[in-house]
Amino acid sequence: MTANRIPLSQLERGIPFEQRHIGPDAEAQAKMLAQVGYGSLDELTAAAVPDVIKTAEALDLPEARTEAEVLAELRSLADRNQVLSPMIGLGYYGTFTPPVILRNVMENPAWYTAYTPYQPEISQGRLEALLNFQTVVAELTGLPTSGASLLDEGTAAAEAMTLARRVGRAKGNIFLVDADALPQTIAVIETRAEPIGIEVVVADLSAGIPAEVAERGIYGVLVQYPGASGAVRDIKPVIDQAHELGAIVAVSADLLALTLLTSPGALGADIAVGTTQRFGVPMGFGGPHAGYMAVQDKHARSLPGRLVGVSVDADGNKAYRLALQTREQHIRREKATSNICTAQVLLAVMAGMYAVYHGPDGLRTIASRTHRYATLLAAGLKAGGVEIVHGSYFDTITARVPGRAAEVVAAAREGGVNLFQADADLVSVACDETTLRADIEAVWAAFGVTADIEALDADTADTLPEGLLRSDAYLTHPVFHQHRSETAMLRYLRKLSDKDYALDRGMIPLGSCTMKLNATTEMEPVTWPEFGQLHPFAPVEQAEGYLTLITELEERLCEVTGYDKVSIQPNAGSQGELAGLLAVRAYHRANGDEQRTICLIPSSAHGTNAASAVMAGMKVVVVKTADDGEVDAADLRAKIEQHRDELAVLMITYPSTHGVFEEHVADICAQVHEAGGQVYVDGANLNALVGLAKPGHFGGDVSHLNLHKTFCIPHGGGGPGVGPVGVRAHLAPYLPNHPLQPTAGPETGVGPISAAPWGSAGILPISWSYVRLMGGEGLKRATQVAVLGANYIAKRLEPHYPVLYTGPGNLVAHECIIDLRPLSKATGVSVDDIAKRLIDYGFHAPTMSFPVAGTLMIEPTESEDLAEIDRFCDAMIAIRGEIERVAGGEWPLDDNPLANAPHTAAALGGEWNHPYSRDEAVFPAGVTAAEKYWPPVRRIDGAFGDRNLVCSCPPLDEYDA
């Protein structure tokens, strides 16, 4: 017995989390290694990873901890945060997330582990939810077309600035911004405007557009409605005046206020932007939240980001899809005016469902209560002799207390309430859905006022201007009236999620996207109130736990990447790209090298790279890709020499976009540095490097990292994401900063990239937990198993489909590309046919036609076990057999299981005239009836949807069609 004794220390720690995260166990790994031809993980990665980039030393990270230990550590951090009543306002408000939405959307893996709906046939649930969101935004703003969400209000306003320049006809170069706009919005606009040569003028527009500004030429105007100070004023005269000058007008509007106030569209606005945060989405210390943009119909095809449209499937049934996908950076690349390639889907779904659950009457009630509290708050202050700056307001009042502002704010804080000090004399107080009578009384006390709220309620009228009260109906579609009970809402959410395919159903083998486990332990703290209910502009001493977590995460990301400093402010990979390139630009300018504006980008790069470079004030020069998928070394040398004096930066993805470890990356970096340029290493494929190599050590000066890929933040149906930027020391002074939180970045920084100081801080506990649970050795093994999985798939499929690119040792990195072009040419079966047929086998397709048209890029990640990987390989091999039956003439090219895929349950009914059987259609090899996933629609006609653009809930007369 003694000989078999297990030490108590080992028993206490239990099963390491690493074994929960990594799918293949030791036995499975041995089988996979045998297939690939290597004896161990170390042997495989030694052969796959070029010596010149390898990291010799182990990652210097804290030892891995158990799930219970990590949750306890997070609880300790959470306890160091103070959550006061959030009456700061400025675009962030307390809100109640209905528990049925919290549990069944935000905490439900059927929603948060889904991917971007690029395969719409298996995304109908989230697409319908996004259509609801678009309808809410469109109808409340009074503008006919809304997108499927943007990153936050500040970046949405910046997108409006560039959209206005693209679609407008005015010749001026000034973008005029309301002085009463949110301060962070103004700052983000200024950050985005300077590199592309737009002049931003901030002016008081309460009396109209100043004549001296109008004379200089305005192409666009942004008006805040209601203003940041709380003022509600008639903005129509400013809109009309701007239109007379030929300018495009954007209105940054509060959606809750729009349930009571005349819509921007009715007032003549061309664009409306804002945030949907207060529709049930926790503040989360700044995010993630779903920003919005709505436009007039004539601008719909220039809308940045994603747009959900209504189309039809092969049977003519209504079906949803992403509309107008061939636009902006997808095809325009360096001509794009936006680098947005993502959305905030999970948060948009929550905000849309908040409106579905409450309906127009419920939203109006919440808004009326919020306004009533603000009115009574102001009345009590006025009765106590305090001057209220504005006579009309919605939820925010600004009080003038000469020389006493700091004293009042401090007193309120002692009473458990956070207020906003605008300057030495002005204090702003914002009410919201969570405001209580006790909060109002605490604010009065801080001002030195006492009042009777009941008496004030009896004697005080509301303050919204009569002429701006909303009179039109909104949210009239049945979806906003049928789900008042929790039972009905629960079933609606279940019905939608059942239509979708997410990681909780099976493998999503998307190359370059890294759909790995989002562990429940990592997710759990996100909804704790100490993390979820903190205002981003709360005093930093109230966020000690959060800031400790952020600092530790940044430091650990530095260790993983080899960089000296990380900023987690960018709230998407595209924004991390922009932040990194702006740092490079600022560095060159600080050195007097303002002529360095050339950005070299390989032709295989993701479109956001080129779009981000242009937004950073750079000129893109494309470098050819060689036949083996690597950067064309000769063309790169020629381009470096040609642009030596103007070279700012080279942007490369490593491992390459083609899924291989390029052997000459260190030489490439050295050539760029020798010419005076910087090297930007796109971190999209960092899942192949962690623990094996560090970009900051093999030549990178700057990288963005996708925390929603390598570091386990879930994709959420296409968002949220976090795209922190890491830099070497010489670029650190030029990282993002923030005007309202000086500790969020260097004083010499380029300005804010995102509206919130620490970006989407609300989901950073996920990545912090992942690193803490895995430790350095666990992270390295995760990388090694990811590389093993990709090579195992490549070896299994190679006899049936050629693998397009390989690197050292004929190996791939963490993903592989199979080439379907010869097969398509010989048989007529398309990459689309194979992708849709995979649905019948119960899979989400790999990445289609990126980076090479007519190919599939496959990434299993380390989290998929061998049984699931084999199930996928078996399906692909079976499909290859089906293609042979088409090639052999057994099945016609236009009537076979691939051409007709996917097959729905409804398609099985009635007469069957196909040359293959019903069982062959829906129960192909390996698929059983008990485990069958049934797609809700057949193949969708994308062209029809683009020709007949419908992007909100269909009218009532079509509801039963």
Automatic annotation (TrEMBL):
<feature type="domain" description="Glycine cleavage system P-protein N-terminal">
    <location>
        <begin position="19"/>
        <end position="447"/>
    </location>
</feature>
<dbReference type="Pfam" id="PF02347">
    <property type="entry name" value="GDC-P"/>
</dbReference>
<dbReference type="InterPro" id="IPR049315">
    <property type="entry name" value="GDC-P_N"/>
</dbReference>
<comment type="function">
    <text>The glycine cleavage system catalyzes the degradation of glycine. The P protein binds the alpha-amino group of glycine through its pyridoxal phosphate cofactor; CO(2) is released and the remaining methylamine moiety is then transferred to the lipoamide cofactor of the H protein.</text>
</comment>
<dbReference type="InterPro" id="IPR015424">
    <property type="entry name" value="PyrdxlP-dep_Trfase"/>
</dbReference>
<keyword id="KW-0560">Oxidoreductase</keyword>
<dbReference type="InterPro" id="IPR015422">
    <property type="entry name" value="PyrdxlP-dep_Trfase_small"/>
</dbReference>
<protein>
    <recommendedName>
        <fullName>Glycine dehydrogenase (decarboxylating)</fullName>
        <ecNumber>1.4.4.2</ecNumber>
    </recommendedName>
</protein>
<feature type="domain" description="Glycine cleavage system P-protein N-terminal">
    <location>
        <begin position="455"/>
        <end position="736"/>
    </location>
</feature>
<dbReference type="InterPro" id="IPR003437">
    <property type="entry name" value="GcvP"/>
</dbReference>
<dbReference type="InterPro" id="IPR015421">
    <property type="entry name" value="PyrdxlP-dep_Trfase_major"/>
</dbReference>
<feature type="modified residue" description="N6-(pyridoxal phosphate)lysine">
    <location>
        <position position="709"/>
    </location>
</feature>
<dbReference type="InterPro" id="IPR049316">
    <property type="entry name" value="GDC-P_C"/>
</dbReference>
<keyword id="KW-0175">Coiled coil</keyword>
<dbReference type="Pfam" id="PF21478">
    <property type="entry name" value="GcvP2_C"/>
</dbReference>
<comment type="similarity">
    <text>Belongs to the GcvP family.</text>
</comment>
<keyword id="KW-0663">Pyridoxal phosphate</keyword>
<feature type="domain" description="Glycine dehydrogenase C-terminal">
    <location>
        <begin position="782"/>
        <end position="903"/>
    </location>
</feature>
<dbReference type="InterPro" id="IPR020581">
    <property type="entry name" value="GDC_P"/>
</dbReference>
<feature type="coiled-coil region">
    <location>
        <begin position="626"/>
        <end position="653"/>
    </location>
</feature>
<comment type="subunit">
    <text>The glycine cleavage system is composed of four proteins: P, T, L and H.</text>
</comment>
